[in-house]
Amino acid sequence: MIQQLAKPAFIVLVISSLLWIIYRIILFSGKNKQASSKREMILFFFVAWVIFILLLTLYPLPITKIKVAGAKGINFIPVENTVKEFSDTFTKKRAFMRSHSLENLIGNLFLFVPLGIFLPLISKKFNSFIKIFLFGLLFSLSIEILQLVSRQFGVYRSVDVDDVILNVIGAVGGFIIVRLFYDKHGSISKTTPST
């Protein structure tokens, strides 16, 4: 899947990076505002991460354009299906799916860690556990809803409530990492520019 995304991701990231740089230059050129290079770098990486997530989750790959007979591709039951699918990979029949299953679990968890790291560094408004939780929930839920809608247009991405759960855990984990780091080395509010 990553190989299929490499070329379009590279093109989109290059174009969006150029547009982002032009936008930021225009934004700060006629004003007496001074841009913090640290904050601009964090914003840039955050925007690049958002673009990467949207490409990874919404870009129609050849495999997602084929409707598999009998496969629902939609799961609204939390945890149960993921546990069953993963435990099934320990049987001889399904052992070949173990790496895919692990990749899915770990991938969904770690994909959203940057959200929990970037948001508190970008704005003081996101300096609380509940705000990161809610933002992660809304962002992940939005992606799953877009994937559900895309099924109506022949892009058969799977829609899974467990993806939302894992994404939110990842975002909260990222926030905890930032909090632990700044509790050791100084407060987030001292380093976070106000917005």
Give an overview in words.
By secondary structure, the chain is mostly helical. The protein has one domain (2-191). It contains 8 helices and 2 strands, in the order ααβααααβαα. It has helices spanning 2-29, 37-58, 80-88, 98-111, 113-122, 129-150, 161-185, 188-191; strands at 74-75, 159-160. Helix 2 (37-58) packs antiparallel against helix 5 (113-122).
Task: Tell me briefly what this model is.
This protein is mostly helical. It has one domain.
Count of extended strands? 2
| Dominant shape | globular
Radius of gyration: 19 Å
Along the chain, the helix and strand elements come as: HHEHHHHEHH
Q: Mean of the pLDDT scores?
A: 83
Count helical runs: 8
What percent strand?
Answer: under 5%
Which stretches of 5+ consecutive residues score pLDDT under 50? none
Largest sheet: 2 strands, parallel
Into how many domains do the coordinates divide? 1
